Amino acid sequence: MGNPEIGNQHPSFEENAVSPGEIPGDIITIATFDFLSNELAEKIALMQWNIKDPRFVNLIRLSIYEGKANSDCFNIVATNRKGDVVGRLYCLRSRSDPHLWYYGDLAVDVGYRRRHIASQMLLSAVNTMQDRGCRVLRTYVEPGNTASINMQRKFGFMEKPYEPFDDLINVGQLMFEKELEQYDAVPATAEDAEFATMIYGKNAEILQWDSIMYNAWKKILSVSDPDETYFLIYRGAMPCALLKINGLMNGDTAWIGMLAVEPAMQRKGCGTYALRFAEDYIRARGNRKIRIKTNEDNVPAVNLFRKLGYDPVDQCGSTADGGVKRRDYIFEKILG
Residue 216: exposed, middle, or buried by beta-carbon count in 10 A (0-12, 13-18, 19+)? Predict the structure, then answer.
């Protein structure tokens, strides 16, 4: 993203800003915006370039337009008690790799430096990107921008050989990347029966599953069965999903027998991680295909399977509790 008349936008750590005058003890609010108001866009342009010229305001609008039209993006904005913008950071998802994100245009008003606002904005951005499935975060820094280089290293970014990011114009800059912690899969044991009970129970009604109580889960998870295994998907120390893989002894086709995601963690990349993990696990066991069954009412699951390359190969009718008829689909994916 760039404009030959105005200059390209790059990460500018504590640069190109003018201060309205720091207020001792001023309260700073940091918020995430998918779509900025026109007023905020004007305030960002004033803070970042010290000018209200419409061309500069349109740079902010253009970054949102291109980001949302082609992929995904958001802004992190820091404001003071009066509502003045004192910091801004822009994040953009790669068009070709949904797990790769870029952050740039990092600026803090000169009167608000040395108050860790840049660090707080970056931490907020990282949390938002993790929620949106980011696995690798990238930024570019001018070789002489020592403050920004030091900040990248402080946050665990590693300098990597230069690669372009979509249409950004940044040849000659240093490229830094950081791998973001996402999810982990851990074999479930009888000690995890409480988590299995809660996660399964929150999904049972909507997915029309039979009820399974704590003691039953404890028994299920205490059995060693070479044909099937259970995993808990964690984010940090929080159990987020329950995954069952079975049919491991078939030699050809294994199944995802169950995938239940804690409702608070849905649409945050957890289900995608679980499926990817299951594919890797099954592939390593020597199975050639993976299958999963869901009902026609589970639209989010159907969309996720299609998105990840699963094709419907069969369908059948079933009867849910109460005699309700429904259609079930079987999806399949060939593992390379």
Answer: middle
Q: Is the pLDDT of residue 24 over 60?
A: no
Cα Rg of the chain, angstroms: 24
Residue among 271, 278, 261 nearest 307 (CA): 271
Q: What does the pLDDT read at residue 291?
A: 96
DSSP, collapsed to helix, strand or coil, labels residue 157 as coil
DSSP conformational letter for 310: -
d(CA 37, CA 27): 21
Q: What residues pair up with 29 in beta bridges, in sequence order? A: 79
Backbone angles phi, psi at 9, to 5 degrees: -90, 125
Within a domain: 24: no
Which of 149, 179, 209 is where one domain is finished? 179
Residue among 317, 319, 304, 320 nearest 331 (CA):
304
Q: Say yes or no to pLDDT of 126 above 50.
A: yes
Task: Cite the beta strand spans of the chain per DSSP E.
Answer: 29-33, 73-79, 85-93, 100-108, 136-141, 158-160, 174-179, 184-187, 228-235, 238-246, 253-261, 289-295, 311-319, 325-334
- 213: phi > 0 → left, psi -120 to 50 → alpha, else beta; which? beta
Name 119's Cβ contacts closer than 8 Å, sequence gap at least 6.
151, 154, 155
Check whether residue 99 and residue 69 sit in a common domain: yes
Q: Are 26 and 80 in contact (CB under 8 A)?
A: yes
DSSP 27-47: --EEEEESS--HHHHHHHHHH
- Global pTM value: 0.56
Question: Which DSSP state fits 67?
Answer: H
pLDDT of residue 196: 97
Residues 241 and 137 in one domain: no
Residue that is last in its domain, among 144, 179, 214: 179
How far out from the chain centre does Cα 185 lie? 17
In terms of Cα–Cα distance, which of 68, 63, 17 is closest to 43? Answer: 17
